[in-house]
Structures are given as C-alpha cells and as structure tokens.
Amino acid sequence: MKKGKLYNYFMIRNLNKVYKRGLTRESDGNIIPNMESLKQSVYSALINLLRPLIRILLRNGIPCGTFCEIARCVYVDVASQEFGIQKRKQTASRVAVITGLSRKEVKRLREISASEDLSATDRYNRAVRVISGWRKDPHFINSKGLPRNLSLEDSKKGFPALVRQYSGDVPYRAVLDEMLNAGVVELQKNKVRLFNKGYIVKRNEIAKIHILGADVAELITTIGHNLNCKPDDSFFQRKVSYDNIPADLLIKLRKQITLKNENFIEAMDKLISQYDRDVNPSVKGEGSKKAGIGLFYFEQ
C-alpha cells in the first residue's frame, strides 16, 4: 500500500471508528452501499478535495482556526436555509441536531454576518457578461468580427453602451475598474481595448481567489446534483486523463488542449447565449436560471 493511500486509510479509520463495510439491497433489487460504507467514501473524497484547498489557504496565510470557524458558519447557514421542514420554521435545536453543533454555538454563528463577498462575485459575473456581449454583438465588433476598441465618451456605441446593455444599471466605471484590475482590458487614448476572449485574470490576485470560489462551487454543485439525481436527470460531467505522459511534452499538450478548449467554449458561448434573455430579448419562458458548462485542465 502506497504512503498516501496508507495515510488515507488510517485517517478514515480514525474518523469513522468502527464503521463496517457492506451492501444493502433496495426493494427494487438494486445493490447499493450501506451508510457506513458510504460515509467512508465521503471521508476519502473529502480528504482529496481539501488537500488542494488547504494548500491555497496556507499559501495565503489562512490558519486552521479561521477555516474551522468559516466551516461552522456555512454548516449553520446551509442547514438553516436548505434542510428545514416544509412550512415549519427552522429552529436552532433542529440545526444543532443536523450539524452536530450545540444550540448555543448555532445561535452564536447565526448572529455572525455572512463572510461571503457577494459584491465581488457579482462584479465577476457582470464582467463575464460584458466580455461575452463585446465579442459577438454586431454593435461592438468590427468588419472582421473582432471586438472594437470602444470609446468611453460614446454613450450609444461605446463602452458605456456595452455595459448598460449587458450589465444593467451598474456604472460603467465600476465594471471598467474590475476589468482593468484583472488585466483583461487596457486604456488607449480614452478608448478601451479587450485583451482576452474571456475573463482570464492576469494580474489581480483577489480576483483570482473570487474565481476559485465561484467556479469550484459550480463544479461541486454539479457533482452534488449527479450524486442525488436519477440517471436521466444527471448533468454533463466528464474527464479524460492519462498518467504516463513525458514531462517534456506537457507544454506542447497544454497548448493543444488550450486551443481546442477555446474553440469549444466559443461554440458553447454562441449556443447558450441564444437562450439568455439579456442577450436575446425575444426568448420566452418562466423563471430565471443560470446554466453553463466548464472545462478543466489539470496536471499532477
């Protein structure tokens, strides 16, 4: 047994104590893991999930105590908002039972203001919409189909018009500052030039951290949906990987994958935007949902 696997084995054993392995047969005849075996799998998955996250936290000076406090806050928030009984108020006692925290601790954590920077997430989403509109709206592209350099003074065909159309009633200067800080645009004689095809942060470390929270949360939400839904209702989630690639060929492989992914993402952008009412006001339907697709490249 490898060292990493040995560590995981004993970590799970210590956390889980005396859980037994086994299988349970459902009434329809399907064989499913019992709860003890399922919890072992969750512990193992949690260890693998936390390892790269903890690496980022330590690199940015976030101690264990702070992480644990944030985790408790989120436990209480999710239990309060999403695990209540229909038509009944979610009490501190029930939240305490669900989370394993004391009622006193639940009450304390409920009084702490939410630490999530919603405004930063909102700025990120607005910038993404603006760039998408800039790249394909006929009003903001040139004869070659490329994004034009947009004037800050032209309220009808310039950058203020772009922001007004794709970012709502937010001042265009706030969106511009976000994009300048991220390094996705530059100013040239009172005109804005787009650097990248998408919201690819080059400079701003804070913006990169916010993307971590937004994008990883969406991936985990998809995985969570697929764990609890019927097979026909699952979301698309695929991965391709090989583990015997020469290290000196990774740069070539990375460039090829990047090019193919950019082409694919552009095709998906055109497809999905057809159904978005901000881009296509003629779309009819009830409600308002966010939907999209993400591609992830990794090296180990």
Chart the SSEs and their pairings.
Blueprint: H1 3-16, E1 23-25, E2 31-33, H2 35-59, H3 64-82, H4 92-99, H5 103-111, H6 118-136, E3 150-151, H7 159-167, H8 172-182, E4 185-188, E5 191-194, H9 205-228, H10 250-273
Helix pairs in contact: 1-2, 3-4, 4-5, 6-7, 6-8
Provide an overview of this structure.
There is one protein chain. The chain is mainly α. It folds into 3 domains: about 5-110, no CATH class; about 115-240, no CATH class; about 240-280. Helices cover about 55% and strands about 5% of the residues. The chain contains 10 helices and 5 strands; from the N terminus they run αββαααααβααββαα. It has helices at about 5-15, 35-60, 65-80, 90-100, 105-110, 120-135, 160-165, 170-180, 205-230, 250-275, and strands at about 25, 30-35, 150, 185-190, 190-195. The protein has a 3-stranded antiparallel beta sheet with strand order 3-5-4. A hairpin with a 2-residue loop joins strand 4 (about 185-190) and strand 5 (about 190-195). The relative contact order is 0.06. Residues about 5-15, about 15-30 and about 115-120 have low confidence and may be disordered.
Highlighted features:
300 residues; mainly alpha; 54% helix; two-stranded antiparallel sheet
Which bin fits the share of residues in helices?
A: 40-55%
Low-pLDDT ranges: 5-13, 15-32, 113-118
User: In the residues, how many domains can be counted?
Assistant: 3
- Number of beta strands: 5
Per the principal axes of the C-alpha atoms, what is the gross shape? Answer: globular
Q: SSE order in H/E notation?
A: HEEHHHHHEHHEEHH
Strand content: 5-15%
Q: Name the quaternary structure.
A: single chain
Let me know the largest β-sheet.
3 strands, antiparallel
Q: Please work out how many helical segments DSSP would assign.
A: 10
> What class would the helix/strand composition place it in?
mainly alpha
Q: What's the arrangement of strands in the largest beta sheet?
A: 3-5-4
